[in-house]
Design a protein that fits this description.
This protein has about 90 residues and is an all-alpha fold. Helices cover about 65% and strands about 0% of the residues. The protein has one domain.
């Protein structure tokens, strides 16, 4: 008998696949790189999100992405502001 509920990893990959079209529509290499960083951040904490077992997939994804981004910000908070638009 097979599983009737997808694992967290399977559900995450399905969600990220739905986001592919958004990523393809980004216009600059910097935006595409930032988008890929978010996708990697979502995958970085799969084990923790699986263990918690929250019924809200998006909550786990957002917590993972935010934690990954928070780790990348310097402790003094002097991160360079993101540039928007085409140069």
């Amino acid at each position: 008998m097979g599983r009737t509920v997808p694992t967290y990893r399977q559900a995450l990959e399905e969600r990220l696949k739905r986001w592919d079209e958004f990523g393809r529509l980004l216009t600059t290499p910097e935006e595409r790189a930032a988008f890929e960083t978010l996708r990697l951040g979502a995958r970085r904490y799969v084990a923790q999100a699986t263990y918690v077992g929250s019924p809200d997939l998006l909550e786990s994804i957002l917590l993972s992405v935010l934690l990954d981004l928070a780790r990348r910000v310097p402790p003094d908070g002097t991160a360079a502001p993101a540039r928007r638009g085409r140069a």
